[in-house]
Design a protein that fits this description.
Helices cover 52% and strands 10% of the residues. It is globular, with a radius of gyration of 30 Å. The N terminus is likely disordered.
Length: 230
């Protein structure tokens, strides 16, 4: 018959319990570390360094579509998914002109404090046959206003149908190129130049792009905007 002392059994049992407790404690620390790491990455906030204010008309206001179908919303969504430091503020209004945009701009700059101003205006002025010199003056005033507040300006070239006559059409387009040179601001080529040639990508009015065209506008503008802003 073999006898094992009670003291020895108690010692072995206590040692095993301590080992198990230490092992479980180590595992819990390791697991909590993983959880904390995951939570930290999930809770990391995107650091916004740049605010892009879009001052435009129906071409940027998703005319005939829902707001989230427009290129501005789609661009903002892409940048958000990429954790881009660029925030987009869409201040485009359908039917707006260079006059209306100029009237709205001071309040918009005060309210949003953007780092960059994207001007997409003039199309409605052109369609209404406004004096090209007045259109240019209004655009220039917006650029000057933004620059006075150290806001970077991006000027979107706008084109209108040729049925207004070659002379008027050329004067209209020349405004944008002249302003870009005079104020040393980047000029972005008209984003509908190729899209407008495909009737399937334009709404029935022949002026506004369809929902299917909006992602194409994003693909066209996104690298250009990033090259300027970032």
């Amino acid at each position: 018959m073999v006898f094992i002392s009670t003291r020895r059994v108690t010692s072995i049992t206590s040692g095993a319990i301590r080992f198990c407790l230490l092992f479980l404690f180590a595992i819990s620390l390791l697991f909590s570390g993983f959880v904390h790491s995951d939570q930290a990455s999930d809770n990391d906030e995107i650091v916004i360094k740049y605010k892009l204010l879009v001052l435009g008309d129906s071409l940027s206001a998703a005319y005939g579509l829902t707001e989230n179908q427009g290129w501005v919303a789609l661009l903002a969504e892409q940048w958000s998914k990429e954790s881009s430091p660029i925030e987009v503020i869409n201040a485009a209004i359908s039917g707006d002109t260079t006059d209306g945009g100029l009237a709205r701009l001071p309040r918009l700059l005060e309210l949003h404090e953007p780092t960059h101003l994207y001007i997409e205006l003039g199309g409605n002025n052109g369609l209404q046959g406004h004096n090209p010199s007045v259109i240019k003056r209004n655009l220039a005033a917006k650029i000057e206003l933004a620059k006075a507040q150290n806001i970077n300006v991006l000027l979107q070239e706008i084109q209108i149908p040729t049925n207004y006559g070659r002379r008027y059409t050329q004067m209209f387009i020349d405004n944008y190129h002249q302003l870009a040179e005079e104020f040393d601001v980047p000029l972005i080529p008209f984003f509908l130049q190729d899209i407008a040639l495909d009737a399937s990508l334009m709404q029935n009015d022949g002026i506004h792009p369809t929902a299917e065209a909006q992602p194409m506008i994003v693909d066209f503008l996104k690298p250009k905007l990033e090259a300027i802003i970032l």
